[in-house]
Amino acid sequence: xxxxxxxxxxxxxxxxxxxxxxSCCIGWDVDIDHKTYQSYKNVSDLRMKKQFEKFIYENDxxxxxxxxxxxxxxxxxxxxxxxxxxxxxxxxKHLGEKYLSNVCTYYPRxxxxxxxxxxxxxxxxxxxxxxxxxxNPNAMKMHEVEKPGKYPIITFDxxxxxxxxxxxLVAYFSEVRSxxxxxxxxxxxxxxxxxxxxxxxxxxxxxxxxxxKTHQTPELLxxxxxxxxxxxxxxxxxxxxxxxNMVRVLLPVxxxxxxxxxxxxxxxxxxxxxxxxRASCRERE
Length: 285
Ligand code: SF4
Hints:
Layout: E1 2-7, E2 31-32, H1 34-41, H2 46-55, E3 56-58, H3 65-68, E4 70-72, H4 90-95, H5 102-106, E5 109-114, E6 117-122, H6 127-134, E7 142-147, E8 157-158, H7 173-185, H8 191-210, H9 217-227, H10 236-250, H11 256-284
Parallel strand pairs: 1-6, 5-8
Antiparallel strand pairs: 1-7, 2-4, 3-4, 5-6
Helix pairs in contact: 10-11
This protein binds iron/sulfur cluster.
């Protein structure tokens, strides 16, 4: 059993399959772990075996055999070839859920381990998950559950007391996160303002770390808890470049929906940055 902390909304998640306005099987890489790859090699359904031989290839750039030992060759229009005309997975239909890879089984769930405790969340890259997260006034309410089995993919495993993190910002992970959560949950000012407050504060944290002054972190944590910061450290142009680069570097994908909304978000950041920058100049005058 795995003691796991998760948000309340997670229990309500259900993939809407063919009714999904986007699809995680279009425009995204489809990863196959080693165990699932072996099960495809040994499958007795000859029609499916042929399809596996045709579309699944061993990955030359494996990062983790539990994740991307092999990959699915997407069609020229970037669809998973195992998706039928109704946008349903034929592997699941013909062979059952246990033949799905770890990534296909778990997405959009993400598991991290923080200081020995598992934490499961949903990724808002799935529209159904995004609806559950963003339209839920209690999205930050958590509870603890016991889950059976072993998690095959743990995205981050962080023990902030570990020796390797001494003198790094990771040593303050829980404290930093608790300030981020408090700031987002308490409406002392509009959400845009609070995001900028956090952005400025995180930037300061990074700067003291870059200057090898990480020991000053507790002081900065205390300052923020007491006062918050004035907005304005991110000029609008810097923020636009930052968000565009993050999207480009972290998630180079072909999903049209993802690209469209990332562009809109980046434009939104730009406009918001200008607005807040102007407001903070007026305040200073
Ligand atoms: S993006 Fe989410 S709702 Fe859509 S098919 Fe994938 S898991 Fe299901």
